[in-house]
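#lab-general

N.A. 3:47 PM
ok so I finally got the sequence cleaned up, no stray characters, all 147 residues accounted for. can someone with queue access submit it? mine expired

B.Y. 3:52 PM
send it over

N.A. 3:53 PM
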Amino acid sequence: MTEARSGTPEFCDTNVVVYAFDRTAGAKHLSARALLDRLWDSNAGVLSVQVLQETFVVLTRRLPTPLPHQAARSIVEDLSAWRVVEPTSGDVVEAIDLSDHWQVSLWDAMILMAAQKAGAATLWSEDLGDGQAYGSVIVRNPFRPSS
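B.Y. 4:20 PM
back already:
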């Protein structure tokens, strides 16, 4: 895991990253792109290996017009310059406990655990409730006007 150079860490979930590169997503594309640009400029962006993996799969298989593998690979490689949380087997066990505690899927618990591990106070996602606190992490939906 590499350290962010400056800025308070802010964790991005897969959906936000994907919208930033999905030109068919309209207003969500513009909002996600602006958020990612801000996080690049401030060196505050954090994500996890899980986000990198899911981003590649969605960009190459699930978009209305999937990206070529090489283009998606380049995006993942560029995002790897951010601080990337690399979970351990112990983190998986912790996420299992968090999924039970918070009644979320294991995949969402892995994202929440990674955000906590990175010291992020904000998790940018549209998949979990906007404003919901999970321990020290607050979920923010970048596509809601209040965010």
